[in-house]
């Protein structure tokens, strides 16, 4: 068993009288890639907001690297990297300036920051773009910059919040390959949220969320055996009551 990086217990969250999460349990180990798969409105965004500290759960607990989010939020969040669903770059700044700003927020010395920026951009094939304004990049390359930014402070947990929305198939594949590489080579634990079944195929585990509840948590072969389906898409539709 790999060391646990993220552990969430019995998470509850409601908006007024509408429950968004109902007793969600989640655990991710070092180097593990978990796909959080759910239709629109399943509660994926709410779960991400809780894991990033933007919202507080009504009940339940979240620990990142053993730090409780309620009692030690700065320590917990220090081990976290995030690529949000919406682009979060300053489009008028250069790629390098965007990355330096993030490094400054984490207190990285400039020399170390520039070394990591160079390494990160080279790893995703964007070293030659470092002085271009972010708005000059394609959507896929902007996402790669955000991935580099998310990893500058060397977090042990990476959250990818529907990060491929609006990308073409080639860009989606490249981003997925880059994240899988981080998991396999650097031991980064990753939670990849999506409603696209094909994006879950490379995950170590699949967690199916529907109407705020976890309907399945396990490997793809186990999911197929559990549902009797022939492929993950059929299993997902069956679990979420959309098979018809």
From TrEMBL:
The membrane spanning regions, by residue number, are: none
Q: Which Pfam families match?
A: ABC_tran (PF00005)
| Gene3D superfamilies according to UniProt | P-loop containing nucleotide triphosphate hydrolases (3.40.50.300)
Q: Domain ABC transporter: where?
A: 6-236
Give the molecular function GO annotations: ATP binding; ATP hydrolysis activity
Q: Which UniProt keywords apply?
A: ATP-binding, Cell membrane, Membrane, Nodulation, Nucleotide-binding, Transport
Query: Which sequence ranges form a coiled-coil region, renumbered to this chain?
Result: none
Q: Which family does it belong to?
A: Belongs to the ABC transporter superfamily.
What name goes with this protein?
ABC transporter ATP-binding protein
Name the species this protein comes from. Malikia spinosa
